[in-house]
Amino acid sequence: MRIVVTGGAGFIGSNFIRHMLATEPDCGVVNLDKLTYAGNLENLADVERDPRYRFIKGSICDVELVDAILKERFDALMNFAAESHVDRSIQDARAFVETNTLGTQVILDACRRHRVPRMVQVSTDEVYGSLGPSGYFREDSPLSPNSPYAASKAAGDLLVAAYVRTYGLPAIITRSSNNYGPYQFPEKAVPLFITNAIAGEALPLYGDGLQVREWLHVQDHCEALALILRNGHNGEIYNIGGKCERANIDVARHILRTLGKPDSLIVHVEDRLGHDRRYALDMSKLERKLGWRPRIPFETGLKETVGWYEDHVTWWTRIKAGEYREYYQKTYGDLSHVSQ
Ligand code: NAD
Ligand code: TYD
Fold it and tell me: Where is the NAD(P)-binding domain (predicted)?
């Protein structure tokens, strides 16, 4: 199987490429990535010499480039490329609309033109909006995005659905819950909390910290995506959940306990604007139709993830020394009075 992976130098895309090369001997992968602040070729250092893998630097918004790539014959395109961080979308939404919405449209047109037999749009549970303490989002729940990030992803999803309906494009949408695991950029809550805790710095918790997320290990997500790539049905949407809901404050405390650090490192900071209270997915469709369910229990996966960040200090200290510092200061202000 020959596939184009877009956004393959990011967190989930790099884990997916590694998974495909490890499990499918006949697989060929072209990785198209713009290398934004979140894209990092170090994430794929172990496969860069694999003859089945090729990297192309460029944007999914570049019509000519995407067209030129798809002139070669591919069996599928998996679209991971995105601006992915909610807080950055609140600070400036422009790049989110460009990549997540317009970039998706560029890909859809190119897939149509070159008759790519399968397109998978990697989307998110955030397009459904926020839940109260009970209930779950199903694939047919209305889209009700609250952040600019979620709105730009929802717009991308709607375009995919429109191309399926209008042109019969063989596309599938997946919507997963919050991922965690190795190679996640340390602006997201889990790697931010882990790396700050290792460094003895404050863990900035938004508001009361009682917001709930459903956690999915990235390896489980990649396995589900590989299955959907092979056996999913065109025109369908599949929720991919981790079946594990946790309040943010419990995640922060668990990380501190794992590292032997005190709860006093948790600092309640001003809440995120428009902060969604709870996400939770009904993923019975994926279980029923394709027989998939997550394997990695959250506490096991989190312990391994903490270990990975302890073993890869150079990877994340390099990231945190760059553009990140400016972003961090702008988002949280000075938290240096709390340290240990
Ligand atoms: P990430 O931010 O770690 O990586 C995104 C990658 O896309 C980076 O390598 C970046 O360089 C690349 N990119 C950005 N703009 C591009 C463009 N115009 N052209 C080509 N490449 C571009 O994101 P992630 O966490 O790996 O998320 C991957 C996908 O999964 C996204 O579509 C996201 O919406 C979705 N998703 C993520 C989560 C999560 O918890 N991280 C959950 C559900 C869905
Ligand atoms: P995040 O990893 O940004 O994912 P998302 O917003 O896509 O769910 O955040 C996960 C949860 O953690 C979310 O409820 C926001 C919260 N959070 C904090 O409390 N502090 C932080 O510094 C960050 C980045 C997130």
Answer: 5-305
For ligand 1, the distance from its centroid to the CA atom of residue 11, given in whole angstroms, is 7
User: What is d(CA 179, CA 156) in angstroms, rounded to the nearest whole number?
Assistant: 20
Provide the phi-psi class of 29: left if phi over 0, else alpha when psi is between -120 and 50, else beta.
beta
Using DSSP's 3-state secondary structure scheme, residue 78 falls into: strand
Tell me, rounded to whole angstroms, the distance of Cα 103 from its chain centroid: 16
- Kindly identify the ligand whose nearest atom is closest to the C-alpha of 327: 2
**Residue 187 — very low, low, confident or very high, per pLDDT cuts 50/70/90?**
very high
Tens digit of pLDDT for each residue in 15-68?
Answer: 999 999 999 999 999 999 999 999 999 999 999 999 999 999 999 999 999 999
Is the minimum distance from the CB of 81 to ligand 1 under 6 angstroms? Answer: yes
203 Cα nearest atom in ligand 2: 22
Residue 52 CA to ligand 2 center (angstroms) comes to 36
The residue type found at 135 is G
| Ligand 2 pocket test, candidate residues 91, 188, 194, most atoms within 8 A of CB | 188
The closest ligand to the CA of 203 turns out to be 2
CATH code assigned to 2-180+216-240 = 3.40.50.720
Residue 141 DSSP one-character state:
S
Helix count (H) and strand count (E) of the chain? 13, 12
Q: What is the DSSP letter of 338?
A: S
CA dist 24 and 117 (Å) reads 19
Does ligand 1 have an atom closer than 6 angstroms to the CB of 219? no
Task: Write the pLDDT tens digit of every residue in 319-337.
Answer: 999 889 899 999 999 887 8
> Nearest-CA neighbor of 292 among 245, 233, 218, 242?
242
Identify the nearest ligand to the CA of 246 by its number: 2
- CA-proximal residue: ligand 2, atom 23 (nearest): 189
Cβ(182) – ligand 1 distance below 6 Å: no
Going from N- to C-terminal start, the domains of the chain cover 2-180+216-240
Catalytic residues: 125-126, 149
